[in-house]
Target: Citrate synthase
Amino acid sequence: MSHIKTILTRRLYSTAQSDLKTTLKAVIPERLQLYSHVKKDLSSHQIGTQTVGSVIGGMRGSRALLWESSSVDPNKGVTFHGLTIEECQAALPKSKHESTDPKSEMLPESMFWFLLTGKLPTQSQINTFSSELAHKGDLPEYVVKSLDNLPKTLHPMTQLSIGISMMNNESVFAKAYAKGIPKTDAWEYVLDDVINLIAKLPALVGKIYSNTYYSGKNLGTINMDKDWSYNMASSMGFTLDDSVNIKDLSKSQSNDFVNLVRLYCALHGDHEGGNVSAHATHLVGSSLSDPFLSYSAGVQGLAGPLHGLAAQEVVRFILEMKNAIGGDINHKVKIEEYLWSLLNSNRVIPGYGHGVLRKADPRFTAMIRFGDNRAEEFSKDDNLQLVKNLSAIAPSVLTEHGKTKNPYPNVDSSSGVLFYHYGLQETLFLTVIFGASRALGPLSQLVWDRVYGLPIERPTSVSLKKLAGL
Ligand code: CMX
Model:
């Protein structure tokens, strides 16, 4: 007993006079030293089935999740049930109104169907499914009222996450679970919730856009005869038929915008399971939280600047750089100098690098192709041109800098300037479109998690001292 008392007095008690922050500050250097030693000298050591490097390195390289809808090859990028982006573009149904138009893009609901079932839907199946989503697209009144009461300064991603999590009030899974259901039936209730959640995203996105930037004005409606992306564009005021057309777009620009939403959302829907938004959804869902709560956690992960928030950062960065280089978008040396000024002040180049990919992201290439297919429309768009020039210059700068494992453009590098071109210039909002899109993959996997009856996720943690063998 007296021995324990001595240890506590000597090693565990804080200095009597110091406050919390000072006490913490005092112990950080010693702990950092230990951390550096473990990272530098012990990374390859095995601990259980992992290496120490994987435990302290964000679980890089550790295969620890079941995910079937898509996979990511470091050099080839994403495939969806084995199909490349181009193959999906060729095979997945488009809007019934534009099914033979070569410039019309695959629908995100077609992608969702494919991700969920592994089967390509027919045009008629998708016509019916688009209509089901539109018919279920209304927001509950209490969600509208609550969103109306949020401060207009609240980041749109926070509003999205609040809106989604509130709708757990609608969850048929949560209600059925409370009454008691056999585990084998859970997936059907989860699927009902997932469809309802996805259906309500266009109206939710539109409501947040309007509340944040247009004083809550009703910008557009959900049209029962139109697809999910059209309705998202419509509820944000970007279409001509059913909305206020706040951006004064021509008919072809409005069609382009709808197709941009379709392509963007289909492509960004899934990127295997280890990214933060997908993993967070899966993790929270593993405790049998309903799909609304699970996906709101995914949205909160997406809101981080190293993940989805990079979409907003890239547009700001492109605009700032254009300004800083005096509009000389083709001046290689000025661009290089600007990049070095960022790197030398310890900032990242937004839109470059990736946790898994080691080549340019094919989703980046697909978005650039979207612009190239509309060459006349984009002929005077300096921002897109600067993004393209940057993709030829930044990789060599980042390689010379020598830190990032992937010096090539990632998914967020090109999409923002395309939206910006059509008038979606509220950069904070770009990640909300990403948030609507990312629902497709993680929520389809959540249904399968319940089909398999996967258990609650519960890895074990370990202290730095233990890793160091102390
Ligand atoms: N600019 C400057 N430095 C970069 C960099 C970039 N674009 N990308 C990576 N690095 C640095 C890292 O900060 C890290 O430095 P430290 O060793 O000092 O910590 C080093 O290079 C090694 O990082 P990495 O292993 O190559 O990359 P990570 O897997 O750790 O991180 C990512 C990946 C995306 C977070 C990182 O590349 C990054 O911060 N990029 C810029 C932000 C961005 O574009 N995010 C969007 C990602 C796509 C998405 O998920 O939505």
Residues 236 and 448 are 32 Å apart (CA to CA). The first helix runs from residue 2 to 12. The mean pLDDT is 94. Residues 81-453 form a domain with the Citrate Synthase; domain 1 fold (CATH 1.10.580.10).
